[in-house]
Specification:
The chain contains 3 helices and 3 strands. With 107 residues, it is mainly α. The longest helix is centred in the N-terminal third of the chain and has 14 residues. The model has no long low-confidence stretch (mean pLDDT 83).
Length: 107
């Protein structure tokens, strides 16, 4: 479906799966705070969220396919709906009220 396509002209193409994994790790390292992403988690994320940059054989259309060549260029699938404006916005007062109403035990 088009909602999970990497065919957008804005999709960044990674040289191979390893380059996409390194990009995910770099993103976590650059985030503020004490962010951490293990190489194993980054690999799982990349394998699940990428498609070949230039689809070839439909039977090997996913990096999770055992016959997928890891040197194949890949792009992240992207659902363009994630970029749509939010349907609901809250004021600062609404958010603060919501937080005050959260009741959860703290150790």
């Amino acid at each position: 479906s088009s909602s999970s396509s990497a065919s957008s002209s804005r999709a960044k193409i990674y040289e191979n799966v390893d380059a996409a994994i390194e990009a995910r790790l770099d993103t976590a390292r650059r985030m503020p705070g004490d962010q951490y992403l293990s190489a194993e988690a980054a690999r799982d994320m990349v394998l699940r969220a990428t498609v070949p940059a230039t689809p070839t054989d439909p039977s090997t259309s996913s990096p999770t396919d055992p016959s997928f060549d890891p040197s194949t260029p890949v792009a992240f699938r992207h659902d363009p709906r994630l970029q749509w404006p939010s349907l609901q916005y809250y004021t600062r007062e609404q958010v603060e009220s919501f937080y005050r109403q959260v009741a959860h035990p703290v150790c």
